Amino acid sequence: MMFTEIGRNIEKAARLLQNGEVVAIPTETVYGLAGNALSEAAVTKIYAAKKRPSFNPLILHIANIDQIICYATPNAISLKLANAFMPGPLTLLLPKKNNVPDITTAGSNKVAIRVPNHPLALELLYQINFPLAAPSANQSGYISPTTAQHVYEGLNHKISYILDGGTSIVGLESTICEVMNDHILLHRTGGISANMLQDATGLPVIDGASHERLQTPGQLKSHYAPNTPLYRGNIETLIDQHRGKKMAVISFYKKFALSDNIDYYILSETANLSEAANKLFSTLREIDAQENYEVIITEIFPEEGIGPAINDRLNRAQFIHK
Ligand code: TXA
Ligand code: MG
Predict the structure, then answer these.
(1) Using CA of residue 281, residue 51, residue 59, residue 111, what is the dihedral sign?
(2) Would the CB of 91 count as within 6 Å of ligand 1?
(3) Given Cys at both, which of 29, 106, 115, 301 links 57, Cβ 3.0 to 4.6 Å?
(4) Residues in contact with 47: Cβ distance below 8 Å, sequence separation at least 6, in sequence order
(5) How are beta strands 5-7 and 161-163 bridged, if at all?
(6) Per-residue pLDDT tens for 211-241?
(7) How far apart are CA 241 and CA 245, in angstroms?
(8) Phi-psi region of 257 (alpha: psi -120 to 50; beta: other; left: phi over 0)
C-alpha cells in the first residue's frame, strides 16, 4: 500500500512524473490525475488508479499553445480557438500525430488537448519535457475533485503525491469541442460557452453530447453521480413529492418551503452562476458524506454563461430507476 502525501512541491511532482509515476495536479477546472502522456506504462497506471475503462481516452495537458503542433495537426479555426481561450477551460479535439500512443487516446486517431490555466500546473508543465495525460482525479464514476482533500478521499493509497493548488476556480470540467467543416461540435459543455465559441469563429455550434449519450446511455449518464439519489426540476414540486424524507436541497440562491426535514445548500446568495459552478461539486460531496439524507433535490439553472454546464452535470448526476 502506498502512502499519499499532499504538498506544494513542484520539483517533487516533476521528479515523480519523470520517473513514470502518476501525480494528482490542480487545474482551474478540476484536479487531474497526471502521468507522462507519451509513456504507455505511465498511462496504464492512470487507468488503474482510477479504475477507468480502457476505452475512455485521456486529455493531453501542455504548457502553451505552441506545443499543439507537436502532438496534433490543428486547422486554422482550431488555432483561432486556441488563441482565444488557452490557457483556459477549453479542450480541442484534433487529428493526432503518431508520437501520441494509442493507449492515451484509447485507439482513436484524434487527441484531446488543453492548456490548464493554473499557475502550479503551468510551472510543472514547464519543468518537464513531455505532455501530461490527465483525467479528473476521482474514482471513475464519482464526482470530480475540486480540492486536494477531495482527491485524497478517492485516491488515498493509490498514488504517492497530490500537488495542492487550492480550490479549482471554475469547478466544472473543461468544454470539449471539435472544429468540423462548417460548424463546431460541442462534445462537453463547460466554462467556455457555446456562444463564446460561436463569437470567436463565426461558426454555428452543434451539441454533440446528446447523441453520444444515446450510444452509451447508462455509462455516461451516471458519470458524476453522488450515492444519494438526486432529483432535479421544480424545487417546490419535488419537495412535495418527497415529503417525509430527509432532504438536502441544492438551490441556486434562495430557500423555498421550510421544515425540519429540509436542509438548504445555497450555491450563490448573489445569484452568480460562476460562484454556483465553483461550489457545485464540493456541495454534492459534502451532502453525500453525511449519511442521513435520503434524497438530494435541485433545480434547473438559467441557460446562460456556465449555466448549461451546471445543468449538464446535474442531469448526469440524476437518480436513474433501474
Ligand atoms: O477539465 C478537464 O477537462 C479535466 C482536467 C483535469 O483537465 N479533465 C477531465 O478529464 O475532465 P476526463 O478524463 O475526466 O474527461 C475527459 C473527457 C472524457 O469524457 C473523454 O471521453 C473525452 O474527454 N476525450 C478525451 N480524449 C478524447 C478523444 N481522443 N476523443 C473523444 N473524446 C475524448
Ligand atoms: Mg472525469
Answers:
(1) negative
(2) yes
(3) 106
(4) 53, 54
(5) parallel
(6) 554 444 334 445 678 999 999 999 999 999 9
(7) 10
(8) beta
What are the C-alpha distances in Å from 160 to residues 52, 143, 179, 186, 232?
Answer: 18, 21, 38, 35, 38
Map out the domains of the chain as residue ranges: 5-207, 230-317
- Residue nearest (by alpha carbon) to ligand 1 atom 13: 135
The upper half-sphere exposure of residue 255, i.e. CA atoms within 13 Å in the direction of its Cβ, equals 8
On whether the CB atoms of residues 145 and 151 are closer than 8 A, the answer is: yes
What is the CATH number assigned to the segment(s) 5-207? 3.90.870.10
58 CB within 6 A, ligand 1: yes
Q: Which residues contact 98 (CB under 8 A, 6 or more apart)?
A: none
CA distance 108 to 94: 11
Helix (H/G/I), strand (E/B), else coil: 141:
coil
Is residue 57 within 6 Å of ligand 1 at its C-beta?
yes
Q: Is the pLDDT of residue 271 over 60?
A: yes
State in Å: Cα 293 to ligand 2 middle: 25
The per-residue DSSP string of 12-46 comes to HHHHHHHTT--EEE--SSS-EEEEETT-HHHHHHH
- What is the structure's pLDDT at 267? 98
Number of H helices, E strands in the chain: 12, 15
CATH no. for 230-317: 3.40.50.11030
Which residues pair with residue 281 across a beta bridge?
none
- Whether the CB of 148 sits within 6 Å of ligand 1: no
CA nearest to 114, candidates 87, 94, 137 = 87
- 28-75 per-position pLDDT tens digit: 999 999 999 999 999 999 999 999 999 999 999 999 999 999 999 999
Please state the atom number of ligand 1 nearest to the C-alpha of residue 56. Answer: 21
